[in-house]
Amino acid sequence: MPVYLIFALVMLLMATATYLYNKILCLVEVGVSLIALAVVLVLIIRFRIYVRKVVASATQSAAGISEGYLESLKLPTALLGEYGEILIYNKQFKRLFFKNAEAVNENIASYIKDETLESMCMNERGVDTTFMDKKLTVYTHKVDKGYMVSVVDNTYFKNIEREFYNTQKSVALVVFDNIDDFNSSSEEDGTQAMIMVENLLSRWSSKHHCLYRKLADSKYLIIFDEKVLLTQIDKRFRILDKVRQIKIGERAATVSIGIGRNCSNLYDSHLNAKKAIDMALGRGGDQVAILSDGEYEFYGGVSKGVEKTSKVRVRVIAESVKNAISQCDKVLIMGHKYSDLDCVGAAAGMYSVVTKTFSKRAYVVCDVEKSMAKSLIERLQTQHDDMFINIDRAMSIANEKTLLFIVDTHSPDFIESPKVHKLCGKVIVIDHHRKMVNYIDDSDVFFHEPTASSTSEMVTELIGYLGDDGLSKLEAEGLLSGIMLDTKNFVINTGVRTFEAAAHLRKKGADSIDTYREKYKLVSKAQIVNNCAISTIDGIVKNSRLLSAQAADEMLTISDVYASFVISRIDSKNVNISARSYGKINVQVIMEKLGGGGHQNMAAAQLADISVEEAKEKLIATIRLI
After folding, report:
1. Which pLDDT belongs to residue 363?
2. Residues whose CB is less than 8 angstroms from the CB of residue 35 and which lie 6 or more positions away in sequence, other chains included
3. pTM here?
């Protein structure tokens, strides 16, 4: 109001000065000045009426609110207008926000940010916010013509809460996951590598004030505060990189870490750490798995898994499988949806040993029309006309005495029929893909080997202990074609055991199938994003999934491309993404964020109700976040 009055007085003085030069102009200026002054006075009167209405409505809602009433309150309190303008407040409110200044008619948004008055009114427990270095909780009450806010300064208690949270303890289990690789060279190499890894872990623990203990050879326990964990998450667990720098010859050391987080006590944290380390090792090692509130987070996983040379585990699992087959009355074998050569080849191998060695009735559950290994299925059907059955027939056969083999997948979301799975009394899982968070956890035998080249390789080793005398030439060819598909004709993911399995199948009469070795060279419309090649296939193409996989392999030959993705439409509703990598980029992590999964070097995802271009945009956004 004083500003407006001074402005009006200046206008009148200027009009008086004009009188000496031009009387008519003077009269015009005086008229304009009086009109402006009248408008200002009307606005001031209206504002005062508005303030009285707000205060009156607040008085009715809050039992006689006034400036005196606000001063009687111990909490910083203010009355706001309809648009958040500050009308009246007590000394505590002034001291908290304005200190010695005045702020009548300023908007509350200048002091309490990122929240609307409507949202604050809806939250009865108050809204947490910050102002300067203070941590506040704001309670808001709606009155007819405005709002009343009360503020609690929680800085002291919030700092205590943050300190409590930062000092919460988490248990980590660390495994030197490729120590056997060093020991296979010489005992001295293994001892030297272990000493270097242990020294690194000990120094790291001391630096961050962690409790470090060695549990057994190549196994360690570390307990640390939440603030240490937050720092490591922010740094993407550089400790993995430091361990990887430990080299003896051409071998680099790797460790896996499982962490139990956000647990009420150390016992539960230790149990979750055990689950997490199993998950990390099941995904190939050289990574960190954090289990928190039932959810997993993963970091690292850039190294290729180390092939296990010992077959003791296979022999032990073979005994369990033998007992399970002997105790059942019939066997069902089932793979993943849109089965490929590895899936069908592994199923054929298990069918052979069950029906010939154990003389049990067995069936392979498969949607033949949607399979990518239709040629192999047709050849197998000429030898076994009742080998493949559909889901409906499988459901009529399955019961508590039925044994179900699930091959080439361990996720309940990807199997051919979850209903068949639930009907069977016993379940055996055989898979080589890196372990997913959502895995089949009710299996009687879980034969999972992420370092194997293929499920067909694992089945070949397994039936070697179960008895493969009845393995026919065609069944051996099915197993070999599965190995060839997943190794790109023995180019990637191969090891000593891969070639041993292939040699064994050759002895059984298996021969390479030229049809399965041909490469499709579809590399059209390729787009490079962060060293990833992305291509799309327009329309619905026959055998699009197989075509996508082959095209993704071809795109890896492009210079400076570390991963490749081919997007194709499976049908009118679903879009498929085939992903491939040589190891520098973990495509499993990318596909998992899109709802899929797979292996570090080979993964896929299916998206529903989306176009190919939308799937491409979603994929690019995910790649840029990794």
Report:
1. 97
2. none
3. 0.56
